[in-house]
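Protein modeling request. Please complete all fields; requests missing the sequence field cannot be processed.
Requester role: graduate student
Desired output: 3D structure, token encoding
Chains: 1
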Amino acid sequence: MMKRVLAAVAVVWAAGVAQAEDVMRMAVTTSFHNSGLADVLLPEISDDLGLEVQLLVVGTGQALKLGEAGDVDAILVHAKAAEEAFVEAGYGTHRREIMYNDFVVIGPAGDPAGVGEAESAAGALQRIEGAKADFVSRGDDSGTHKKELSLWRAAGLEPERFGAWYKAVGAGMGAALNTASGMGGYVLSDRASWLNFGNKGGLALLYAGDPALFNQYAYIPVNPARHGHVKAELAEKLEGWLVSPRAKALIDGYEIGGEGLFVFNAQ
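Delivered output (267 residues):
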């Protein structure tokens, strides 16, 4: 099973590492990759540490499975309950929070469901359901998908009972945004992916600001006691860099159009 999963995964960083002495593999979310932040951090990691970090870009659910199988040395994901279960089961050594942003509700600028008038995230989703407006779900067990499902349920709604207006695409954040753009539908996105998305078309950011939309990213080294072949020393080395003042400056300083995409909060 994991061989099939790995066959579908792209290793997206292999440039500029001739000087790197060490190589490790890290599974990361599509939202992190789509944000563009990896393109900022990875060359600096290579320069500072002599470390090549090969990224496997998947949803959080698949990232956790790769960690469980010992196919990566660490993961960087954003679904706290699933992360804590991963560590509790012994697949990860610990969970270290690195940075956060927030989720936002994107939709057609004309906003036929009136999402922009909602007073809460639950209210925004209730308006979409009430209007039976087209909604694009990641449908891929990613951190964003897990958050979306929890928000529907917090609104007293059951996605399993939705009709044809609810479209699960089983794809990454960029693909989900492209689908929403093509059909003029609503979609839940992390803010960073939305800001870095180049095919906005008639879409606009319609709702944000509810504390329920908080989006924390955490780093988890895979447990060498479970998989003796993982590069635990390199994972520890990378963690030290990710929580350093150097990483803080790069993460907090990363902007698109003058707007910051992430806030560093490692301790």
